[in-house]
Amino acid sequence: MSLTNKHQSLVALHSAVLLFALSGLFAKWLELPATVIVFGRAVFCALTLALLVIMFKRQSLACDKKTLAALAITGGILAFHWGSFFQAIQLSSVAIGLITFASFPIFVSFLEPVFFKEPFHYQALLQALLTLAGIYLILPDGATTTNELTGALWGIASAFSFAVLTLLNRKFVRNSSAKKVAFYQNTFAALFIAPLIVIEPVAVTSQQLTILLILGVVFTAFAHSLFNYSLKVIKAQIASIAVSLEPIYGIVAAYFFLGEHISMQMVIGGMIVLATNVWASTNR
Fold first, then answer.
1. How far is CA 4 from CA 9, 122, 189, 233, 234, in A?
2. Between the CA of residue 123 and those of 1, 102, 268, what are the distances in Å?
3. What pLDDT band is residue 142 in, cutting at 50, 70 and 90?
4. Where do the domains of the chain lie?
């Protein structure tokens, strides 16, 4: 492996993580329900990936029934993950949404032995307690009676669903093309969300549609392509640590672009969650 390839992969990896982090800001920029944001993001991402695979990669999107069933299930989970993530940010803040979501490696530590019949590491209990302590610190005073607590709970639900999605991908679709998996999961995510859009239709302006297009193409399809490209050279463990920087990128961006307040208590709580996240990621 040349130093040039490694450098390019590191740039791609951190660019992808930055784009992932900035996607959280769209929950505030788009004055739309979380379901509409997820639907638009999934549709535009799926269309982009289909164009990329068929027109440029010259590959088929054909898929056997067993894999398609697994992708349908994981697509539904992806829809819930994104919906709960945007709901968390809309109810609270980008900081709370991103830091609570960053707890997903803890759920992986608990669920991995169940999915793959691997030994349980009891250090996961301590990691879970540290994560809860960190999340408690990021909540503002009085948050037990406000939207911040509800937002944090949605963020934890987003983290849990992402952990399940990660493990199911490892179990059922790890040997499939990454772009093909992403295409079908986004397609099924859109299909699962579609009935909610029909039941409660929302008017979307041309400006909002443009922003959704940018979210789906640049901050989702392109970001995932960069991330997958980096994994060809970068070890998964290093990538996991890089992903831990997502809340930091997002919180700094929210401070500059949205004017969100960052207290010292939130910084301490966030550092506890992120440090525990790195610990959990590097000890599996």
1. 9, 40, 37, 11, 13
2. 35, 18, 21
3. low
4. 3-282
